[in-house]
Every structure is written in C-alpha cells, then in structure tokens.
Amino acid sequence: MKIKLDEITEAGLSLDIVEQGSALNEIAGGSLDFSFLSPVKAHLELSRQGRSFFISGEIKTTIRMSCSRCTKEFDYPYDAPFSSYYERAGKSAERESELRPADLDVNFIEGDEIDTADLLLGQIALELPMQPLCAPECKGLCPKCGADLNLGDCGCARDTGKESKFSKLKDIKIK
Ligand SMILES: [Zn+2]
Ligand SMILES: [Zn+2]
C-alpha cells in the first residue's frame, strides 16, 4: 500500500498492514535470492518532523532461502523489529533533524508517498543473513562429487590439501 506523507502528522501514525508475498516477489522481479511464502505482516509506527520521517515497527513473514552450504531450499520464519529514517527529497539541505538517530542511514522519499512494499522489502533484505544455513551444523556438499554430505558420506577422499587441476576445472563447470 502507499502511505501519503500528509497522513503522517506530528502526532504520529500507527498502522497494521499486510502485503501479499506474491506481490513482493513480483516487485523484486527475481533480483532477490529469497522469496516470500506467506503474506508479509507489519506493524508500523510513523512519526514526522517537517520533512523528516521516522518509521519503526515489526515485520513478520516466512521466507524461502537456499542454504549457502548445501544449496537446499528451506523456510525461514522472519520476525524482526526495524527502524528507519527518511527525508523528503528537497532542493536545499535542511538542518539535521532531532528525529534522526545517529546510527541510521538517511533514505530519501521522492514524491509525496511511501510505498510500504518497497519499505518492507528493503528492511527484510537488510536483516537476512548473508550466508543462510539450513541448519547450523549443515555439512554442505562434497567439493568433488557434489553429494549432499548431510545425507551420508559419499566416499570421496577429502582434506588431502591438494586438488588436481582437473578437479578444479570440473568445479567451475558445475557452477
Ligand atoms: Zn544446508
Ligand atoms: Zn564426494
């Protein structure tokens, strides 16, 4: 949904919103390495001071990601608070707002509304682990034959410390 900046008064605005996961997947257009399995629910608290907006809240959804070790897809329950600071894009830089906590980056708002789908996507992408794991103890794939080592040992010799040129070439082709 879109929130008109004019609707955010100095008194603040509190909102509960739901964005369909499929709609967010579409907006991201395949540029994300995760996808949404369920609607994204969020509670938002918006406050403003002139051209400055502070948005905090909590986001809940379920995300499908690929394990960075074994490549298996797994579902990740996402439930995290967030806070972000926005400034309405303008001609002249104004003085630092009192609303802005020192450790938050400034995001700029073009136009006169905030698109909550963009907001949620951006926050979630920031919070997700860079190298997701299906399980903390995931053993990953055999670098030689590609077998999933979580399912058992494939029998390849490992940790010899040396690899032939040939096996390296094979690895490149698989990718
Ligand atoms: Zn894994
Ligand atoms: Zn193997």
Uncertain residue ranges:
none
Distance between the termini: 39 Å
SSE series? EEHEEEEEEHH
Structural class estimated from helices and strands: alpha+beta
Rounded to an integer in angstroms, the radius of gyration calculated over CA atoms is 22 Å
Q: What small molecules accompany the polymer chains?
A: zinc ion
Number of structurally distinct domains: 2
Helical content stands at: 10-25%
The quaternary organization reads as: single chain
Question: DSSP strand (E) fraction?
Answer: 25-35%
Would you report the number of β strands?
Answer: 8
Q: In DSSP terms, counting alpha (H) and pi (I) runs of 4 or more, how many helices?
A: 3
Please describe the biggest sheet, giving its number of strands, its sense, and whether it closes into a barrel: 6 strands, mixed
What is the residue-averaged pLDDT?
86
- Morphology: elongated
